[in-house]
Amino acid sequence: QAQLVESGGGLVQAGGSLRLSCAASGLPFSGYVMGWFRQAPGKEREFVAAISWSGGTDYAVSIKGRFTITRDNAKNTVYLQMNSLKPEDTAVYYCAAGSSMARKGYRYWGQGTQVTVSS
Asked: Among 9, 10, 20, 67, which is least packed, fewest CB within 10 Å?
């Protein structure tokens, strides 16, 4: 069965960086669009970034220019490099696998990793 496992979250000061990883298993990774979403306390889950099998990307306006999504199809892993972090980036970050670059309708989800940015 498909499984997505996120790692790399933690506590960082504002202005710092973190790199999230998501290891996929049990699915044909290279055939899926991979996305990152986040959910802050008391808020709805929101789209962060997505990457197609060929490397095409899409970013939310709020993080564009600060975050970069990449993937390694040989390692079945997708990454989210987060720079210039702000306290408002604090959230649980989720990895997801879907069939299109639409910002919804993702089929598989990870359990999430907590990112906390202190001011």
From this structure: 10
Identify the burial level of 66 via C-beta atoms within 10 angstroms of its C-beta, where 0-12 means exposed, 13-18 middle and 19 or more buried: middle
Mean pLDDT (the chain, rounded) = 96
Cα dihedral across residues 25, 27, 28, 29: positive or negative: negative
Q: What is the pLDDT, as a whole number, of residue 88? A: 97
Q: What is the pLDDT of residues 55-66, one digit of tens each?
A: 999 999 999 999
Residue-wise pLDDT for 71-109, tens only, equals: 999 999 999 999 999 999 999 999 999 999 989 999 999
Of 14, 115, 116, 96, the residue nearest 49 (C-alpha): 96
CB-CB contact of 61 with 67 (8 Å): no
Q: How far apart, in Å, are the Cα atoms of 111 and each of 24, 58, 65, 96, 118?
A: 12, 22, 26, 10, 23
Q: Which residue has the tokens 């709805």?
A: 44
Q: Which helix (H) or strand (E) holds 94?
A: strand 91-98
- SS3 assignment, position 18: strand
